[in-house]
């Protein structure tokens, strides 16, 4: 499928695999480090914080924009996912950092078409798919994977392809999608990918609305003003669980505190005519993704990190968030 006429931008746009490979080869020849920020567009300050981090740490930075059909189930929002390329390019143009007198701006935007990325074609229904896909077994069915069983297969597949084309020295992902980032690090290790080294896959803290703590997300654009006013419920619930956990309460009691807070907020929202429903809140071992036993408690320093994560439906929008404990 053609990606149509591209908007004007001072940043070079690489709209084919061959253009991107040639660009990367030049960077190899010049011994330049390359940072990759993979995105699906609809950029917000969370994405831009990854871009700025990459600008700081690499000679060159490439941002990929590709809405990946394989990570949406047939009933999900592929059709309505925000596509805002002109605005994305404008925001990227404004990103600039100075590193020892070297003024750095994004070096290129990689904009592949669907056929480029899926030469065997792509069907959103996994049962009908043909071709090669990447599955990170044992790490894709918990947490987000329990609600979206197709999701990580789609992500692992597209990110493998992006890594194969761009061969980044460093790659940058947001903590908001913590399971995605940890799973991709494992994937780099398992597939012995030369680029990036698993230790060069960086996870950057979640950017939040400074007023109410809502995690920035492209899907926040779906929220009406009323829905937006309650959308930070999940974060507040996670914070409630975090403070119980930090105070020494067991997992079950900590999660109950979060669920109680969310239940109160849902009741108030319903009175105001806003649909809201908690999907899940869970605590998982950050290394194995296994669900913590209900009686587990915070370990003294040196214990394994825990991911406290959850999802909430606000109207027709599903929002996710997490806090890393320890
Ligand atoms: O986090 C995202 O935006 C996407 O899952 C990613 C990593 C760009 C793959 O499509």
Which features does this protein show?
alpha/beta; three-stranded antiparallel sheet; binds pantoate; Pantoate--beta-alanine Ligase, Chain: A,domain 2; 326 residues; six-stranded parallel sheet; 10 helices; Rossmann fold
Structure summarized in a few sentences:
This protein folds into two domains: 3-204, HUPs (Rossmann fold, 3-Layer(aba) Sandwich), CATH 3.40.50; 218-325, Pantoate--beta-alanine Ligase, Chain: A,domain 2 (2-Layer Sandwich). Helices cover 35% and strands 18% of the residues.
Q: Round the Cα radius of gyration to an integer and report it.
A: 20 Å
Tally of domains: 2
Instruction: Tell me the name of the CATH class of the largest domain.
Output: Alpha Beta
Report the total helices: 10
Find the CATH topology of the largest domain: Rossmann fold
Largest sheet: 6 strands, parallel
State the CATH superfamily name of the largest domain: HUPs
Poorly predicted spans: none
How far the N terminus sits from the C terminus, by CA atoms, comes to 45 Å
CATH architecture of the largest domain: 3-Layer(aba) Sandwich
DSSP summary, beta strand count? 11
SS content category: alpha/beta
The rough form would be described as globular
The helix-strand sequence is EHEHEHEEEHHHEHEHHHEEE
Percent helix, as a range, is 25-40%
Mean pLDDT: 96
List the strand order in the largest sheet.
1-6-3-2-7-8
Identify the bound ligands: pantoate
Our estimate of the beta-strand percent is 15-25%
């Amino acid at each position: 499928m053609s990606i149509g006429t591209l908007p004007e931008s001072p940043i070079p746009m690489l709209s084919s695999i061959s253009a991107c490979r040639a660009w990367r080869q030049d960077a190899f020849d010049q011994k330049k480090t390359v940072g990759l920020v993979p995105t699906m567009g609809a950029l917000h300050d969370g994405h831009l914080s990854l871009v700025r981090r990459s600008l700081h740490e690499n000679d060159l930075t490439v941002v990929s924009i590709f809405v990946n059909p394989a990570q949406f189930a047939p009933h999900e929002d592929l059709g309505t996912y925000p596509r805002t390329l002109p605005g994305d390019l404008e925001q990227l143009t404004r990103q600039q950092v100075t590193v020892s007198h070297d003024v750095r701006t994004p070096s290129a935007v990689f904009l592949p078409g669907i056929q480029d990325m899926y030469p065997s074609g792509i069907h959103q229904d996994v049962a009908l798919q043909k071709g090669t896909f990447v599955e990170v077994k044992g790490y894709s069915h918990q947490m987000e994977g329990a609600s979206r069983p197709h999701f990580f297969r789609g992500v692992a597949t597209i990110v493998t392809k992006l890594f194969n084309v761009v061969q980044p020295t460093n790659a940058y992902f947001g903590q908001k999608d913590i399971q995605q980032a940890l799973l991709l690090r494992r994937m780099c290790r398992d597939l012995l990918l030369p680029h990036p080294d698993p230790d060069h896959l960086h996870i950057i803290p979640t950017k939040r609305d400074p007023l109410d703590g809502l995690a920035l997300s492209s899907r926040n654009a779906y929220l009406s003003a009323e829905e937006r006013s309650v959308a930070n419920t999940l974060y507040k619930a996670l914070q409630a669980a975090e403070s119980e956990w930090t105070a020494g309460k067991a997992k079950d009691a900590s999660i109950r505190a979060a669920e109680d807070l969310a239940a109160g907020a849902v009741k108030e929202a319903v009175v105001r005519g806003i649909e809201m429903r908690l999907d899940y809140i869970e605590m998982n071992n950050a290394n194995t993704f296994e669900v913590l036993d209900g009686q587990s408690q915070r370990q003294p320093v040196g214990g394994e990190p825990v991911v406290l994560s959850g999802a909430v439906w606000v109207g027709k929008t599903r929002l996710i968030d997490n806090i890393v404990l320890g």
